[in-house]
Fold this sequence. Notes:
There is one protein chain. This protein is of the alpha/beta class. It folds into two domains: 4-120 and 271-282, Quinolinate phosphoribosyl transferase, N-terminal domain (Aldehyde Oxidoreductase, domain 3), CATH 3.90.1170.20; 122-268, TIM Barrel. 44% of the residues lie in helices and 20% in strands. The protein contains eleven helices and twelve strands. The strands form three sheets. The protein has a six-stranded parallel sheet. It has a four-stranded antiparallel sheet with strand order 3-5-1-12, with helices on one face. Strands 2-4 form a two-stranded antiparallel sheet. Helix 10 links the parallel strand 10 (238-242) and strand 11. Helix 1 (4-21) packs across helix 3 (54-64) and helix 3 packs antiparallel against helix 4 (93-123). It is elongated, with a radius of gyration of 23 Å.
Amino acid sequence: MGDPMTRLVMDEHIRAALKEDMPFGDVSTAAVMPKARPGRVRLYAKADGVIAGLAVFSRVFELLDPTSHVEAEVADGDEVTAGQLLATVEGDVRALLEGERTALNYLQRMSGIATYTHSVVAALAGTGTTLVCTRKTTPGMRLFEREAVRLGGGSLHRFGLSDSVMLKDNHIDAAGGVAAAVAMARASAPFVDKVEVECETLDMVREALDAGADIIMLDNMSHDDMAAAIALIDGRAQTEASGNVDASNAARYADLGVDFVSCGALTHSAPILDLSLKHLEVLG
């Protein structure tokens, strides 16, 4: 996963996950494997889907045993089928046992998100609308969940509150209205930043246009109101549809000609992809 800083942050999260699982060591592994022994275990898919997070999976074992090695049979973003051999992991048996659940938790979660994202991307195919994720992520998992969205074929919205200006309903209330909120954002944000405004009504869309918003989010609007809003905007700002979007209804928003569809379900509702580490062998 990317640059050195990203890998550093990833390592911090993985170490925290391992400490959460075994704050005082793994008593079961210590009982059956008190000394280092080389071993091998195999990773299998138990359901059809899109695999994502192999680098994270591998890193869990590397942090426990720097000599460990994962021989992958597939690559991130590949579609896999139930029963398929995905990888073989070799290393100290103690590390294989200690890291099993944490490695699978990351890989199953990321693969589930990639699988669900893939289905929504397929629903939008040929429409010209871009699917983006949201900040509705599991605390501490945003880095991993966003990467899973990307591997599933989706695109990325802002990472967090420090990245760009998005004026939502409560920001607008705090500022005293759409026009005031946009003006205050323009006065404080760098000139290179775009300003996005969340709008729930056609009147708010008009205000956002008059105020010079760069992107207008059409939030929880009816299909008819969204169509009217897009006609009103008429290319003067980019448009983003949002609000209870999932694989079953994403295409109906794209049919309106919206530029982006943001979907919180990608990260807050995707089920895991069932995977398993099986057939551990002690080699020496």
